[in-house]
Fold this sequence. Notes:
Radius of gyration: 20 Å
CATH architecture of the largest domain: Alpha-Beta Complex
CATH topology of the largest domain: Quinone Oxidoreductase, Chain A, domain 1
Number of strands: 18
Structural class: alpha/beta
Largest sheet: 7 strands, mixed
Strand content: 25-35%
Order of helices and strands: EEEHEEEHHEEEEHHEHEHEHEHEHEHEHE
Shape: globular
Number of helices: 12
CATH superfamily of the largest domain: Medium-chain alcohol dehydrogenases, catalytic domain
Number of domains: 2
Distance between the termini: 15 Å
CATH class of the largest domain: Alpha Beta
Helix content: 25-40%
Amino acid sequence: MRIRGAVLEETRGTFSVQELDLAPPGPHEVLVRLHASGVCHSDLNAIDGTAETLCPAVLGHEGAGIVEEIGEHVTRVRPGDHVALNWLPACGVCAECARGFSWLCSTAWEGMSTGGLEDGTTRLSRAGEPIYHYCYVSTFAEACVVSERSCVPIPSDVPFEIAALVGCGVTTGVGAVARTVETKPGDRFALIGCGGVGLSALLAAAALGADPIIAVDVVQEKIDVALTLGATDGVLWQGSPEATAAAVRDVTGGGVDVAVEATGRPEAMLAAYLSTRKRGAAVLVGIPREGTVVEIPAGTIQRAERRVLGSIYGSSVPDRDFLSALELYREGRLPLDLLISHRLGLDDVVQAFELMKSGTALRVVLDLASSG
């Protein structure tokens, strides 16, 4: 079938919306008519080279839509089902999956580098030449073919734009707070970096009863937004990790139990660690550039039993955690609609990234149902 998709021709290049060919789904694959896609910072990492990506490619990995066609052996979904897309279809049999850590699935992570689906081949093409997938899903398009394991059925009353954000940014932020480290009521909490993922973590901290909640950023306007979403205090970046952490400790009376870092910058990672008190945990969510090093005073780790935890995809299991986040949304405890600052069309994808880079947007969502 013919679809329109936003193609990134090369790293550090730009997008152009083009007509593409999309092959039908294979035996264990699903064709999804996309209705919404989030524009996530991880997509920007693919554009600027922070995360190496095969090109030409259709980016986008936060998607939601309606199942239109299924392969002959598909059992998870049926045509007409509403789904959110999981960009990490875990194999279920590798060593990490067997240990219960499906978000670390070695098969899925290794296969992602091929730019194809699980068999390493692409369903997208242009004039007979392959166009690569991104994170198995490629949601900057009118439709996509994905593995059935990438489809998570969702309630039909959930807005597609909310379900799309749960596909990555929300799950990453919420999971970092609720899964990577189990934040409890009354825990002192700090967020370093008030972007989309960070604010999702902040909403989760508020929903779980953390108090106080400190928002840290280099931009006062972002702190102001965080204060409307549940932060109790704000700390503007003080010029160095040490000075910023000292300000957080002053506000909290000695430091926090949980500090989530959501920028990928080493100075923010160090600030998160130094903001913790004894037995505190710094949870590193942001994606750093290759070769980034963080120097931590070794003596402060042992004597205070402070911890540094990595977090990918929020240590989450999409079949479980997409639905738990959406249930909190439906109950009004996780007001994800407050994160959406801009709604654009597929043809506006370049503008979407300009908004992200300018720092003026919280979350940008592409409305794909009205594309074309």
